[in-house]
Amino acid sequence: MTRHFLRDDDLSPAEQGEVLELAATLKRAPYSSRSLAGPRTVATIYDKPTLRTQASFAAGIAELGGNPMLVDGSLAGIGKRESVADVARVLGRQASVIVWRTFAQSAVEEMAAYAGVPVVNGLTDEFHPCQLLADLLTVREHKGALPGLTVAFVGDGGSNLSNSWLLAGATAGLHVRVAAPEGHQPEEQYVDRAREIGGQTGATVAALADPKAALDGADVVVTDTWVSMGKEEEAAARLAAFADYRVTTDLMSLAARDAIVMHCLPAYRGKEIDAEVLDGPQSVIWDEAENRRHAQKAIITWLIEGVPRSSGAAS
Ligand code: NVA
What is the structure's pLDDT at 307? Predict the structure, then answer.
């Protein structure tokens, strides 16, 4: 059965561990997998702006021996000019993997239902699972073993990044705290799902209003833009709602002394995070950006080469 990576909990805890291990190997030895030799084609489609995702997929696909095909989202008009299902059936005949950045999660699910090849979520309104693989790889590099670490996400608890931290963090056995203002708290369904995963991994989840409580002793501090792509019309209201949720040096003083700071970028200095923090010694943002390539090479390779027998996971 074809596997996809549409949301963070598409990988079981054991599978997530395998993918992260493979990512670390591919970082040490970038050409040790030629899983796309041929070259096989990976179709990448972007319906929202992109820098890191497009660049890291293109570079990573080339390193795997493959051909990165850019399908121009505005020309293709997926779901407008022709249906998602028809596009999926066409691209599935040209490419070995499809990567899609778009708006609705239901759209990538529909693509996966009809493509016949693995589909990877390159960001939707609901999740950004490739970012989380890169972020967990980054945390592992700086902090060692993941289970038991505490991560504080400060900002838009209703965003794709927050949802993905809840699910991927719980899968990795982290204690995930989200601090967000009223009206921007994480949806209950994701908190519940993360808690359910935590039942297997030991992870815990807290949805808080107070950023100080979230940062107290945290090992990892994460933030993201207050105005995600597609929310531009709400910008003014959001800047006001999140004003007390900026990651400042004062706030950082509450975290563990050796805490790391993460941001998926693009960042808005002086809004969700102060420049001194983003550009300061605790920041690991450039490692995160680099690790997109290693993590995405790992998930592509893992998806097309199949589930290793040792994982015992059903497909
Ligand atoms: N939450 C942000 C992530 C950007 C990579 C957005 O969706 O715009």
Answer: 54
Count of beta carbons in the 10 Å neighbourhood of residue 260: 24
Average pLDDT over residues 58-80: 97
First to last CA, the chain: 6
Q: Is there a catalytic annotation at residue 128? A: yes
Q: Please report which confidence band the pLDDT of residue 306 belongs to, taking 50, 70 and 90 as the band edges.
A: confident
Side-chain-side CA neighbours of residue 199 (13 Å): 6
Active site (annotated) includes residue 28: no
**What spacing in Å lies between the alpha carbon of 251 and ligand 1's midpoint?**
23
pLDDT at 311 over 50: no
- Sequence-distant (6+) residues with CB within 8 A of 219 are 143, 149, 150, 151, 255, 256, 258, 259, 260
For residues 176 and 187, the answer to whether their CB atoms sit within 8 Å is no
Q: Which atom of ligand 1 is nearest to the CA of 264?
A: 5
Confidence (pLDDT) at 310: 45
DSSP state of 281: T
Nearest CA owner, ligand 1 atom 2 = 228
Q: What's the CA-to-centroid distance between 154 and ligand 1, angstroms?
A: 14
pLDDT beyond 60 at 315: no
Rounded percentage of the chain residues whose pLDDT exceeds 70: 97
